Amino acid sequence: MPSQDMHPSTGRLAVVSGGGTGIGRATAAAMLASGDDVLLVGRRSAVLEATAAELNAAAPTGTATWLAADTSIPADVSVLATAVQALHRPVDVIVANAGGASARPDGDLDAVEAAWMAAYRANVLSAVLLLHALVPLLSRPGGRIVIVGSQAAATGGATAPYVAAKSALHGWVLNLAAHLGPDGITANVVSPGYTAGTELVAGRIPPDRESALLARTALGRPASTEEIAAVIAFAASPAASYVTGQVIAVDGGVLPPG
Q1: Which pLDDT tens digit goes with each residue over 31-47?
Q2: Taking the alpha carbons of 194, 196, 198, 202 in that order, is the dihedral positive or negative?
Q3: pLDDT tens digits along 46-104
Q4: For residues 90 and 211, what is the distance between their CA atoms, to the nearest angstrom?
Q5: Nearest Cα to 228, choosing from 255, 191, 203, 201?
Q6: Phi, psi values for residue 172, rounded to 5°
Q7: Is there a contact between 195 and 150 (Cβ–Cβ < 8 Å)?
Q8: CATH of domain 13-250
Q9: pLDDT, tens digit (0-9, with 9 covering 90-100), for 138-171
Q10: pLDDT above 70 coverage of the chain, percent
């Protein structure tokens, strides 16, 4: 079960995977500021507990709760779905943000297989299982699905398994939009460019690589997690009622090679 009972609320309920840090945390803060309640999902209980406490202390409205689950593991997602059902309220927003970097597929074929499957499990299956479990609980009409992708899918600027996994989300969101549109549910991908303050890039980007990335960005700087979260919050909002099946780039203006 979530870590605490939610306070009575007239706002919506959002489930945010990868909600303990980075873009997920910033998204939760943005939705709380709009009066929504947020259920944070992630693998690390201590991180989720601390994040929920900090968000609740800062939020004038809404309540953050948390539940530890690895959304790439069916048994964990089943427990999550049961806990959400026990809240006895519809889910209004699902933000599938959980994901992870991948190793370069070097070595023998077994190593290549392991790298590709790990990337797929972390970045695709984690979203597929979450949505498969929670879409039946979504508000109809008015439900919102936002999947967090990556501009690496458009630029190729990451390891091959990661690029391929994030690219898979682009085709899948079209299928989701078509399938769920008749129920008044929207589905979109928000595709961040280079974003500071995330575990995906922390300590992973050498200075020369960072300089090259920023040189190809029109704004000349990385995004903040709050800037990405603002677009996710829009795509999840009632104002985005006619936006669906889209891949929304938030990349500061990636420039073509000069």
Answers
A1: 999 999 999 999 999 99
A2: positive
A3: 999 999 999 999 988 899 999 999 999 999 999 999 999 999 999 999 999 999 887 78
A4: 45
A5: 191
A6: -65, -40
A7: no
A8: 3.40.50.720
A9: 999 999 999 999 999 998 888 999 999 999 999 9
A10: 93
Rounded to the nearest 10°, the torsion over CA 75, 30, 140, 188 is -80
Instruction: State the residue for tokens 């945390």.
Output: 25
**Residues labelled as active-site residues:** 162
Tell me the residue length of the chain.
Answer: 258
d(CA 235, CA 19): 17
By CB neighbour count within 10 A (0-12 exposed, 13-18 middle, 19+ buried), where does 243 fall? middle
Spell 184-216 as b/e; 16+ CB within 10 A means b: ebbbbbbbbbbbebbebbeeebeeeeeeebeeb
* SS3 category, 190: strand
- Under a CB-based contact definition with an 8 Å cutoff, are residues 162 and 102 in contact? yes
| Distance (Å, whole) CA 124 – CA 72 | 8
Structure tokens at 65: 């709760």
* Tokens found for residue 62: 């809404």
Q: Is the pLDDT of residue 258 over 70?
A: no
